[in-house]
Specification:
The protein has 2 domains: about 80 residues, no CATH class; about 120 residues, 3-Layer(aba) Sandwich (Bit1), CATH 3.40.1490.10. By secondary structure, it is an alpha+beta fold. The strands form 2 sheets. Strands 4, 5, 6, 7, 8 and 9 form a 6-stranded mixed beta sheet that branches. A 3-stranded antiparallel beta sheet has the order 1-2-3, with helices on one face. One of its GO terms (molecular function) is peptidyl-tRNA hydrolase activity. This is peptidyl-tRNA hydrolase.
Length: about 210
Amino acid sequence: SMTVVRAAAGARCVHTKACSAVGASVTANNQRRFSLNLYPKLLFWSNSPGASLAQWRKIMSESVAAGRPAEPAQVTQATASAFGSGSQQDFLVQYVVIRKDLWGSLGWPLGSVVAQACHASSAAMWMYRDEEATQQYLAPENIDHMRKVVLEVKDEAQLRKLSEQLAQGGIGHKLWVEQPEDFPTCLATRPYAKSQVASYFKKFQLSKAPIG
Protein backbone atom coordinates (compact mmCIF):
# COMPACT_ATOMS: atom_id res chain seq x y z
CA SER A 1 0.00 0.00 0.00
CA MET A 2 1.03 3.61 -0.51
CA THR A 3 2.56 5.31 2.49
CA VAL A 4 2.50 9.08 2.86
CA VAL A 5 5.69 10.55 4.25
CA ARG A 6 5.62 14.11 5.46
CA ALA A 7 8.79 16.21 5.09
CA ALA A 8 8.74 19.64 6.62
CA ALA A 9 11.16 22.26 7.82
CA GLY A 10 10.90 25.63 9.53
CA ALA A 11 12.83 28.76 8.65
CA ARG A 12 13.81 31.72 10.80
CA CYS A 13 13.99 35.34 9.72
CA VAL A 14 17.05 37.46 10.44
CA HIS A 15 15.47 38.69 13.68
CA THR A 16 15.35 35.05 14.90
CA LYS A 17 11.54 34.87 15.03
CA ALA A 18 9.89 31.91 13.36
CA CYS A 19 8.31 33.42 10.28
CA SER A 20 7.66 30.58 7.86
CA ALA A 21 6.95 26.94 7.35
CA VAL A 22 7.41 24.88 4.26
CA GLY A 23 6.15 21.40 3.62
CA ALA A 24 6.06 18.77 0.94
CA SER A 25 4.11 15.52 0.78
CA VAL A 26 5.79 12.65 -1.02
CA THR A 27 4.46 9.15 -1.55
CA ALA A 28 6.37 5.88 -1.44
CA ASN A 29 5.37 2.46 -2.75
CA ASN A 30 8.19 0.86 -0.78
CA GLN A 31 11.14 1.90 1.38
CA ARG A 32 13.42 2.57 -1.59
CA ARG A 33 11.42 4.66 -4.09
CA PHE A 34 9.61 7.98 -3.74
CA SER A 35 7.63 10.25 -6.05
CA LEU A 36 6.54 13.85 -5.60
CA ASN A 37 2.89 14.38 -4.67
CA LEU A 38 2.84 18.08 -3.87
CA TYR A 39 5.26 21.01 -4.19
CA PRO A 40 5.94 22.89 -0.96
CA LYS A 41 3.79 25.91 -0.31
CA LEU A 42 6.24 28.73 0.28
CA LEU A 43 4.68 31.26 2.65
CA PHE A 44 7.87 33.18 3.41
CA TRP A 45 11.35 32.13 2.40
CA SER A 46 13.98 33.35 4.81
CA ASN A 47 16.97 31.14 5.49
CA SER A 48 17.35 28.54 2.74
CA PRO A 49 19.92 29.31 0.03
CA GLY A 50 18.41 29.78 -3.42
CA ALA A 51 20.82 27.31 -5.01
CA SER A 52 19.73 24.51 -2.67
CA LEU A 53 16.06 25.26 -3.26
CA ALA A 54 16.65 25.23 -7.01
CA GLN A 55 18.35 21.83 -6.73
CA TRP A 56 15.41 20.45 -4.73
CA ARG A 57 12.89 21.72 -7.28
CA LYS A 58 14.95 20.34 -10.18
CA ILE A 59 15.09 16.81 -8.77
CA MET A 60 11.39 16.81 -7.95
CA SER A 61 10.22 18.31 -11.25
CA GLU A 62 12.36 15.89 -13.27
CA SER A 63 10.80 13.01 -11.36
CA VAL A 64 7.28 14.21 -12.17
CA ALA A 65 8.08 14.97 -15.83
CA ALA A 66 9.61 11.53 -16.34
CA GLY A 67 6.70 9.79 -14.66
CA ARG A 68 9.04 7.92 -12.38
CA PRO A 69 9.87 8.23 -8.68
CA ALA A 70 13.04 9.90 -7.48
CA GLU A 71 15.55 7.84 -5.54
CA PRO A 72 15.23 8.20 -1.74
CA ALA A 73 18.87 9.29 -1.46
CA GLN A 74 18.24 12.14 -3.90
CA VAL A 75 15.15 13.28 -2.03
CA THR A 76 16.84 13.11 1.36
CA GLN A 77 19.98 14.97 0.27
CA ALA A 78 18.13 17.67 -1.68
CA THR A 79 15.56 18.25 1.08
CA ALA A 80 18.25 18.51 3.77
CA SER A 81 20.25 20.92 1.61
CA ALA A 82 17.26 23.12 0.79
CA PHE A 83 15.45 23.13 4.11
CA GLY A 84 18.14 22.29 6.65
CA SER A 85 17.87 19.90 9.55
CA GLY A 86 16.22 22.36 11.91
CA SER A 87 15.31 25.94 12.69
CA GLN A 88 18.91 26.91 13.49
CA GLN A 89 20.16 26.63 9.90
CA ASP A 90 23.23 28.74 9.12
CA PHE A 91 23.16 31.18 6.21
CA LEU A 92 25.22 33.88 4.52
CA VAL A 93 24.71 37.38 5.86
CA GLN A 94 26.27 40.82 5.62
CA TYR A 95 26.42 42.95 8.77
CA VAL A 96 26.03 46.71 8.39
CA VAL A 97 26.69 48.91 11.43
CA ILE A 98 25.89 52.61 11.41
CA ARG A 99 26.30 55.47 13.87
CA LYS A 100 23.11 56.37 15.73
CA ASP A 101 24.25 59.95 16.33
CA LEU A 102 24.11 60.68 12.59
CA TRP A 103 20.32 61.01 12.66
CA GLY A 104 20.29 61.88 16.36
CA SER A 105 22.42 64.73 17.66
CA LEU A 106 23.94 65.48 14.23
CA GLY A 107 20.55 65.70 12.51
CA TRP A 108 21.43 63.99 9.21
CA PRO A 109 18.47 63.44 6.85
CA LEU A 110 17.32 59.91 6.01
CA GLY A 111 18.77 59.90 2.50
CA SER A 112 22.25 60.81 3.70
CA VAL A 113 22.20 58.07 6.34
CA VAL A 114 21.01 55.45 3.84
CA ALA A 115 23.77 56.54 1.45
CA GLN A 116 26.44 55.79 4.08
CA ALA A 117 25.15 52.23 4.53
CA CYS A 118 25.06 51.76 0.75
CA HIS A 119 28.63 53.04 0.41
CA ALA A 120 29.97 50.69 3.08
CA SER A 121 28.06 47.67 1.77
CA SER A 122 29.08 48.23 -1.86
CA ALA A 123 32.72 48.87 -0.95
CA ALA A 124 32.92 45.69 1.16
CA MET A 125 31.44 43.62 -1.68
CA TRP A 126 33.99 45.00 -4.15
CA MET A 127 36.98 44.67 -1.82
CA TYR A 128 36.18 41.02 -1.12
CA ARG A 129 34.71 40.13 -4.51
CA ASP A 130 37.08 37.15 -4.93
CA GLU A 131 35.97 35.48 -1.70
CA GLU A 132 33.89 32.35 -2.27
CA ALA A 133 31.21 33.51 0.18
CA THR A 134 30.87 36.84 -1.63
CA GLN A 135 30.47 35.09 -4.98
CA GLN A 136 27.83 32.78 -3.53
CA TYR A 137 26.00 35.72 -1.93
CA LEU A 138 25.88 37.54 -5.28
CA ALA A 139 25.27 34.50 -7.50
CA PRO A 140 22.30 34.87 -9.90
CA GLU A 141 20.31 32.16 -8.12
CA ASN A 142 20.82 33.89 -4.75
CA ILE A 143 20.56 37.55 -5.74
CA ASP A 144 16.91 37.79 -4.65
CA HIS A 145 17.64 36.19 -1.26
CA MET A 146 20.22 38.57 0.23
CA ARG A 147 20.27 38.87 4.00
CA LYS A 148 21.61 41.88 5.86
CA VAL A 149 21.56 42.72 9.54
CA VAL A 150 21.62 46.47 10.18
CA LEU A 151 22.83 47.45 13.65
CA GLU A 152 23.60 50.74 15.36
CA VAL A 153 26.43 52.04 17.52
CA LYS A 154 26.39 55.14 19.68
CA ASP A 155 29.07 57.26 18.03
CA GLU A 156 32.40 57.42 16.18
CA ALA A 157 34.41 56.03 19.08
CA GLN A 158 32.24 52.91 19.31
CA LEU A 159 32.33 52.43 15.54
CA ARG A 160 36.13 52.65 15.42
CA LYS A 161 36.46 50.25 18.35
CA LEU A 162 34.28 47.69 16.58
CA SER A 163 36.34 48.07 13.41
CA GLU A 164 39.52 47.42 15.39
CA GLN A 165 38.02 44.30 16.99
CA LEU A 166 36.95 42.95 13.61
CA ALA A 167 40.42 43.60 12.18
CA GLN A 168 42.05 41.81 15.11
CA GLY A 169 39.76 38.84 14.54
CA GLY A 170 40.56 38.72 10.83
CA ILE A 171 37.00 39.63 9.85
CA GLY A 172 36.89 41.27 6.43
CA HIS A 173 35.03 44.57 6.48
CA LYS A 174 35.05 48.14 5.23
CA LEU A 175 34.97 51.13 7.55
CA TRP A 176 33.40 53.85 5.44
CA VAL A 177 35.03 57.26 5.99
CA GLU A 178 33.20 60.09 4.27
CA GLN A 179 35.48 62.36 2.23
CA PRO A 180 36.74 65.03 2.09
CA GLU A 181 35.59 65.46 5.69
CA ASP A 182 37.51 62.34 6.82
CA PHE A 183 34.42 61.42 8.85
CA PRO A 184 33.73 57.71 9.67
CA THR A 185 30.03 56.92 9.46
CA CYS A 186 29.41 53.21 8.93
CA LEU A 187 31.01 49.81 8.45
CA ALA A 188 29.98 46.67 6.60
CA THR A 189 31.41 43.17 6.65
CA ARG A 190 31.82 41.00 3.61
CA PRO A 191 29.29 38.14 3.47
CA TYR A 192 29.93 35.45 6.07
CA ALA A 193 28.11 32.43 7.41
CA LYS A 194 26.25 33.93 10.36
CA SER A 195 27.81 31.48 12.83
CA GLN A 196 31.30 32.78 11.95
CA VAL A 197 30.73 36.40 12.90
CA ALA A 198 27.58 36.75 15.02
CA SER A 199 29.56 36.81 18.28
CA TYR A 200 31.17 40.14 17.33
CA PHE A 201 27.77 41.85 17.12
CA LYS A 202 25.82 40.38 20.04
CA LYS A 203 25.94 43.51 22.18
CA PHE A 204 24.64 45.83 19.46
CA GLN A 205 20.97 46.57 18.84
CA LEU A 206 19.09 46.42 15.57
CA SER A 207 18.68 49.86 14.07
CA LYS A 208 14.99 50.64 14.56
CA ALA A 209 14.93 54.40 14.24
CA PRO A 210 11.50 55.70 13.18
CA ILE A 211 11.30 57.20 9.71
CA GLY A 212 9.73 60.62 9.25
